[in-house]
Amino acid sequence: MFQAIYSFDGHKAYASQVGMLLGYKGKSPHAPLNSEIGLYAKRIAKLYDIELTKRTEKKYKFWDLFFNGWEEGRYFIWELKSPLVEALRECKLTGEHPYPEEIEIPESTESLSEGLKKTVIVNTYERNSRARNLCINHWGTKCSVCGFDFETIYGNLWAGYIHVHHLIPVSKIGKAYKVDPVNDLCPICPNCHAMVHAKSPPLSITELQEIMESVNVTNSQ
């Protein structure tokens, strides 16, 4: 749950967004999370003799132990508290799976050395282990563009190796956007991933496939 929230921009998200990322379905994907948060908070408060923040008589803000929480329209926002963010990073429990080909690009690239490779820009959804697993469990590990499969070519050592690409450009994601690991993410090999992100906005899967087909036709003539 904490890793899922960490993967969103600013480490904050609607409870329903987190629920969907964790695979909960239905009209209230946040409901199971509310129950879990209550259980965790009660156990920790009892173990460490922590007084929970009261909301009303005999009711408590269980989320307040882990998150900053506030209402935004008809949604409720959870934001990981900074000590928890730091703890996840320090313990390497952020849930991110970076690959050698993927680097995060700072807002200013003036200080980057000339020889530094810059091949793929990804967002945190793509590196989140839960989102990756849900995507791969549904679509498999063959590249959605070219069909390349690492295990077939390189053997068992590379079984399961694949990048995961977010189909919707980050710039088009609104505040109420809910990531769907099955419909919004797709497996893609590093080469195709780099080519998809070679333009801004990124190419669609279909556009890259059409480019490959046109090149193949030209080369076969």
Give an overview in words.
With 221 residues, this protein is α+β, with helices and mostly antiparallel strands. The chain folds into two domains: 1-94, no CATH class; 96-102 and 120-221, no CATH class. Helices cover 37% and strands 13% of the residues. The protein has nine helices and seven strands, in the order αβααββββααααββαα. The strands form three sheets. The protein has a three-stranded antiparallel β-sheet. The protein has a two-stranded antiparallel sheet with strand order 2-3. Strands 6-7 form a two-stranded antiparallel ribbon. A hairpin with a 2-residue loop joins strand 4 (67-72) and strand 5. Helix 2 crosses helix 3 (31-48). It is elongated. It starts with a helix and ends with a helix. Residues 100-121 have low confidence and may be disordered.
Q: What are its keywords?
A:
alpha+beta, 3-stranded antiparallel β-sheet, two-stranded antiparallel ribbon, 9 helices, elongated
